[in-house]
Amino acid sequence: MLDIFQYDFMIRAFEAGMAIGVVAPVIGMFLVVRRYSLMAETLAHVSFAGVAIGLLLQINPIFSAIGLAVVASFGIESLRDSRRIFAESVLALFLSGSLAIAVIILSFAKGFNANLFGYLFGSISTVSPSDLWVIVALAVVVFFVVLFLFKELFFTSFDPELAQASGLPVKAINLMMVVLAAVAVAISIRIVGVLLIGALMVIPVISAMQYSKGFRTTLLLSILFSLVSVIVGLFASYYFNLASGGAIVLAALIIFILSLTFVKKS
Question: Cα(first)–Cα(last) distance of the chain, in Å?
């Protein structure tokens, strides 16, 4: 069974997958607590537009996805903070708008192709050595930024009014959170896919929440569930010739169902 590791592309897939498996639920935890789960889906669709730009201009789609996602995160947070538009409407605006832009760009690039399919649903064979370096490096940066700002992110997520009254720069922290989410989404598209990364950021978190533990314990459980989902999903993807993103998210859904069943029985 371990013959899977005789291939360099599978080793790269597991290394990138483990990095994503840690970062995705860490960011997802704060998004879920803020009731901002749709943010991951929105940024994923924005990243899709970034991928389309990258394919059209023949540059690394990961870089174009990160650039566009970060720019969009500034726009989302600016509109949300202005309170001129409801937060969910802002997300819907960027989600549908970026998808429309992606489709138009791809029409210029002569439509969908097999390479794009890998970005949509994840493909274990598309992670190049340079992609791996980018994914791991940015995942480490995101993780340590969250670690450094953990107390501030925790405080502003649960009680933004009290955090602002305590002198914390809530607007800056919120913007940082959205930018981190944008980077986490963009670096995950190779393994999980644009259309499924939002699920990996949310499902392990809500699975962990079923056990009604403290914040830190829930966060650690969500990372554990995410890593198990990535490992099981990559094995299933290789041996059953499945899209890696679909296999990973399906494994996460099974863990959620098992968690829900276990908690109900206990």
Answer: 35
pLDDT at 252: 96
Burial 13-23 (b: 16+ CB within 10 A, else e): bbebbbbbbbb
Name the average pLDDT for the chain. Answer: 88
Sequence-distant (≥ 6) Cβ neighbours of residue 56 within 8 angstroms: 105, 106, 108, 109
Weakest-pLDDT range from 98-102, 116-120, 141-145, 173-177: 116-120
* Both tokens assigned to 232: 């099981």
CA atoms within 13 A on the CB side of 122: 33
Q: Assess whether pLDDT exceeds 70 at residue 71.
A: yes
Give the helix/strand (H/E) hosting 168: none
Q: What is the pTM of this model?
A: 0.90
Distance CA 171, CA 50 (A): 26
Size (the chain), residues? 266
- From the list 260, 262, 207, the residue with the least C-alpha distance to 229 is 207
Element (H, E) at 209: helix 197-209
